[in-house]
Design goal:
By secondary structure, this protein is mainly α. It folds into two domains: about 80 residues, Orthogonal Bundle (Rna Polymerase Sigma Factor, Chain: A), CATH 1.10.1740.10; about 100 residues, Arc Repressor Mutant, subunit A, CATH 1.10.10. Helices cover about 70% and strands about 0% of the residues. It contains eight helices and no strands. The chain is elongated, with a radius of gyration of 19 Å. About 30% of the residues are buried.
Length: about 200
């Protein structure tokens, strides 16, 4: 991810209409925005639409962005709005298999989602597949306003402040939603894993 200094230089070049400046911007941020759309919307087609809509809005609006340090949160705000528009149209079905690593929150930001070590289970490959399915279902079951905060903070690694700015929410609200989202995911995982364990005992 580009630094604030890099962003300031790039925005200055875009404002001067330097050849290749916007293409460099797309190269720096296009994949990140697509990945965000994929995590929140779930479908490849929806993620492409979100990325295209966000980059188009960036092309039209970047010259008027006054604070380069706000570029990342501004981009995620635009992408979030595009995702929510998809939901209003009835297209908001998370379907991508999430990696376990994507759920690991950064240290120092509250209690994260604890996932058992699948290496201790009898059939590692099968159990890892089941666990990913449980994680996917738990994320997909979150209300959208909780899911988007979890994705921004724990998967896209935006700070609490950047997430709040991107969603136009108070920091306290973001912290509350993040805590509740993590708690809901953990509770769903614990219930699902307990059910799996009970099923194995009966078998």
């Amino acid at each position: 991810m580009a630094s604030a200094t890099d962003d300031a230089t790039l925005l200055a070049r875009i404002r001067r209409d330097e050849p290749g400046a916007f293409e460099e911007f797309v190269s720096a941020y296009g994949d990140r925005i697509y990945g965000f759309g994929r995590r929140v919307c779930g479908e490849t087609e929806d993620a492409r639409d979100v990325a295209q809509d966000t980059l188009l809005q960036a092309y039209l609006s970047l010259k008027g962005l006054e604070h380069p340090e706000a570029l990342r949160s501004w981009l995620y705000r635009v992408a979030s709005n595009a995702c929510l528009m998809k939901r209003r149209k009835g297209k908001f079905e998370p379907a991508r298999e999430l990696s376990l690593e994507e759920l690991a929150p950064r240290l120092g930001e509250g209690t994260g989602i604890e996932i058992p070590d699948p290496g201790a289970l009898p059939d590692e490959s099968l159990e890892r597949t089941r666990l990913r399915e449980r994680v996917q279902a738990a994320i997909g079951d979150l209300p959208p306003h909780y899911r988007i905060v979890l994705v921004m903070r724990d998967m896209e690694h935006l700070s609490i402040e950047e997430t709040a700015e991107a969603l136009s929410l108070p920091v306290t609200t973001v912290k509350m939603r993040l805590h509740r989202a993590r708690l809901m995911v953990r509770q769903r995982l614990e219930a699902a894993l307990a059910g799996d364990a009970a099923g194995r005992r009966k078998a």
